[in-house]
Amino acid sequence: MATSEARPADRIRPGRWLGWLAVMVVLALVFLAYLRPELALDLAGRLWSCF
Prior knowledge:
Keywords: Membrane, Transmembrane, Transmembrane helix. It is a single chain. This protein has a domain of 35 residues. Helix content is 67%, strand content 0%. The chain is built from 2 helices and no strands. The termini are far apart. The model has no long low-confidence stretch (mean pLDDT 83).
């Protein structure tokens, strides 16, 4: 029979929390970059000058 207790494998590990936190921070930074189009153009120009 199934029990209502959470098994250790069902719990989210700390490394996974850190991974999700990193993803959310990156997404927030991308969103903030779209609020400043001159930043996006500057970064694109710097990247283009490498080639």
